[in-house]
Amino acid sequence: MSDSSDSSSRVTPETLTASGQQGAENTVLQATSLCKTVTSGERTLSILHNLSLNVVAGESVAILGKSGAGKSTLLGLLAGLDIPSDGELVMFGHALDRLDEDGRAGLRAGRVGFVFQNFQLLPTLSAVENVLLPLELSPRSGELKTAQYWLERVGLGERTSHLPKQLSGGEQQRVAIARAFVTDPELVFADEPTGNLDPETGAQVIDLLFSLNQEAGTTLILVTHDHALARRCSRCLRLENGYLSEFQPEAEASSEESA
Ligand SMILES: Nc1ncnc2c1ncn2[C@@H]1O[C@H](COP(=O)(O)OP(=O)(O)OP(=O)(O)O)[C@@H](O)[C@H]1O
Ligand SMILES: [Mg+2]
């Protein structure tokens, strides 16, 4: 991946924040100088360079960029699912590099939801059993009712016993969204959450995401190619050539991000 020659809009290595202030008290996520380099055969590929980002509670952040720009890689790092080659990530005040895999999973349990680009539903479990999974890590009464409630909220109240292979791509995506929200998380990461949905269902899912953001103060970090979704976020970031920069989607509504 080559570096862009235009560095005027780059905001790295300074930390991107909503307020321009670093280390605000209600910071839920603080990424400092994150780098990701992978080795593929004999080639070393530098996907992300020195990315710094602060996210405060209740924010909604859209990350846009072309296919292959590294958006899913970045989301995985920010959620602590993947480990950076360099840099530091602090989530809820805990430095993730000081935690092992179990420690990171423990920190996320019940507090973080993740909607994967490829859903990652377990194929042998029904829709409702998939949604129940995160609750089983933190047993609570009325779990089945909670899982069913969330499937109803994403419009799948009639599909609870279907296996993933018996569901359409858009239905599987909505099961993945229900699974991400079932624990009432403080922080939700979603990788192209409307990518497989028709415009009407996509609009319903967007309404659901933002009503949760407003009602429960859930912090949202979304990867999307959808400018309608990006415009509703409090902040929009573009990932390009391994760097993040802030932009206003209104000004560029006609410039499609290529999928
Ligand atoms: N483990 C890996 N080994 C080698 N290359 C990788 C690895 N992980 C990611 N890449 C490469 O890094 C780049 C970024 O991948 P990523 O999936 O993050 O892109 P993306 O922006 O999410 O794309 P899309 O919009 O298509 O989902 C791609 O070129 C991909 O091939
Ligand atoms: Mg991706």
Automatic annotation (TrEMBL):
SUPFAM superfamilies: P-loop containing nucleoside triphosphate hydrolases (SSF52540). Gene3D superfamilies: P-loop containing nucleotide triphosphate hydrolases. One of its GO terms (cellular component) is transmembrane transporter complex. The keyword Transmembrane does not apply. Residues 29-259 form the ABC transporter domain. One of its GO terms (molecular function) is transmembrane transporter activity. Pfam families: ABC_tran. Residues 10-23 have a biased composition (Polar residues). Residues 1-23 are annotated as: Disordered. InterPro entries: AAA+_ATPase, ABC_transporter-like_ATP-bd, ABC_transporter-like_CS, MacB-like_ATP-bd, P-loop_NTPase. Keywords: ATP-binding, Nucleotide-binding, Transport. PANTHER family: ABC TRANSPORTER ATP-BINDING PROTEIN MG467-RELATED, LIPOPROTEIN-RELEASING SYSTEM ATP-BINDING PROTEIN LOLD. Belongs to the ABC transporter superfamily. Macrolide exporter (TC 3.A.1.122) family. This is ABC transporter ATP-binding protein. It comes from Vreelandella azerica. The lineage of its organism: Bacteria, Pseudomonadati, Pseudomonadota, Gammaproteobacteria, Oceanospirillales.
